[in-house]
Specification:
oxidoreductase activity; protoporphyrinogen ix oxidase, domain 3; FAD/NAD(P)-binding domain; 5-stranded parallel sheet; 5-stranded antiparallel sheet; 3 domains; Zeta_carotene_desat/Oxidored; 15 helices; FAD/NAD-bd_sf; alpha+beta; Polyamine Oxidase, Chain A, domain 2
């Protein structure tokens, strides 16, 4: 590696994309400064406190195929075995459907799981297995993108099979309703999780909050490699300045503004602030409009604290025909006994309810479906109204490069194979970092 002494990279945003970029650069001995406007790191995957209990702003799941994310967690000091509860592939809708993949080599584990799934007719199980074999034959690649629903209909997947298996899977993976969701992006997820090693389909449920899992450790790693991580410090403007980029920053607790010059800037914030920053730079105006046009989808996470003895039949459980889509027993996952997280992904009628009423309905569903008669001691509703981009068919997604060669864009919504996942965010950040590193190798 040759001279990098003239490099100093600014990273706007301390979420998973920004911190992945910063760690990759720091490991290559490139000085970095991370600017995070919030008081804590993590972005849309961050830890929060409520009633002296550590929560997350959303209940994310990692898969065994998230190799980049898992590698970076270990690189900054994490321990995958201790940081996660590992579950073999399983989808369970309480008293309605159950798929459990046996410990066989891929793809036989999935085919065996589909053929032995409970709650489906033998014909539906056979059709599901044939569908997966058909996807393997075409290498999980379509001639042109279509909706998930259209693809399922094309391959003879019936209403019951779609409702119990493919729709929950699509909503969980893409956070987008199946009638508009991109079939090609879903196939990328199926390819990487179900068509490689058996362990690639494992579900990993974090035992620690999402800030502690990676961003906090990454911050220490960056500081040990001559970098800086500034929280409560927002970037107000990006200004091209010769072969440098000038940033105007404002600490949120201090009124005065500061300017700093950098060789490169990686913008790793969510779409709205990214579009705002880019819109005032003539060379970035087009990409700003492209970012602003990206549709979005919500995720609602409801935490209900029950008495400590309350537990679910298993750590992760789905419900059929309910507001609640998935329940997570934080006692079994993270030792937070009696705490249950309910997740409602994508758009739906729940958005029309006030939070108090929605929490009541979720508690009622838990009572009716699972026979848990105790009332929650408290609840907390976290509504991320722009949790992810809406992963729709043929959606234009911005590239990581821009018209300014020293300004790059990172985020789970940028161009790539994946939907809005932690792995997609991490991969985009690493791609930006490696693009910069390649200029001085």
């Amino acid at each position: 590696m040759s001279n990098n002494t003239n490099y100093h990279v600014a990273i706007i945003g301390g979420g998973y994309a920004g911190m992945a970029a910063a760690v990759t650069l720091a490991a290559a001995d490139v000085p970095v400064t991370v600017f995070e406007s919030a008081k804590q790191l993590g972005g849309r995957a961050r830890g929060v406190w409520h009633n002296d209990v550590q929560l997350d702003n959303g209940q994310h799941i990692l898969l065994g195929c998230y190799h980049h994310t898992l590698q970076l967690i270990e690189q900054v000091g994490g321990n995958i075995e201790h940081d996660f509860l590992h579950l073999p592939l399983q989808l369970t809708l309480h008293n309605r459907f159950e798929l459990k993949a046996p410990r066989l080599p891929a793809p036989f584990h999935l085919l065996a799981g589909l053929l032995s799934a409970k709650g489906l007719s033998f014909g539906d199980r056979l059709r599901a297995a044939r569908f997966m074999l058909a996807l393997r034959r075409i290498n999980f690649t379509l001639p042109h993108d279509i909706s998930v629903l259209k693809l399922l209909r094309k391959h003879g997947q019936g209403d019951e099979l779609i409702r119990l298996l493919w729709e929950p899977l699509c909503i969980s993976a893409l956070n987008t309703p199946i009638h508009i969701a991109s079939a090609q992006v879903l196939l990328h997820v199926l390819r990487d999780s179900l068509n490689g090693l058996r362990s690639d389909s494992d579900m990993l449920l974090p035992r620690v909050d999402f800030t502690a899992l990676f961003p906090k450790r990454a911050s220490e790693y960056i500081k040990q490699h001559r970098g800086k991580v500034l929280t409560a410090c927002s970037v107000e403007a990006i200004i091209p300045h010769g072969d440098k980029i000038e940033l105007i920053t404002r600490p949120t607790t201090i009124a005065s503004e500061h300017t700093q010059l950098f060789s490169h800037v990686i913008c790793a914030v969510s779409p709205i602030p990214a579009a705002r920053l880019f819109r005032t730079v003539p060379q970035l105006a087009f990409i700003a409009e492209q970012i602003a046009a990206i549709p979005h989808q919500p995720i609602y996470t409801l935490y209900l604290q029950y008495p400590e003895q309350v537990r679910l039949p298993q750590p992760m459980l789905g419900l059929d025909r309910c507001f609640t889509q998935w329940l997570f027993d934080k006692g079994q996952i993270a030792g937070q006994h009696g705490l249950i997280a309910a997740v409602i992904s994508a758009q739906g009628k729940h958005q029309n309810l006030k939070h108090e009423l929605l929490a009541q309905k979720v508690a009622q569903e838990i009572c009716e479906q699972l026979g848990i008669m105790e009332a929650p001691l408290w609840h907390k509703v976290i509504a991320e109204k722009r949790a992810t981009f809406s992963c729709e068919t043929n959606l234009p997604r911005p590239a990581h490069t821009t018209m300014l060669t020293n300004v790059l864009l990172a985020g789970d919504y940028t161009a790539g194979d994946y939907p809005a996942t932690l792995e997609g965010a991490v991969m985009s950040g690493m791609l930006c970092a490696k693009t910069i590193i390649s200029t001085f190798q």
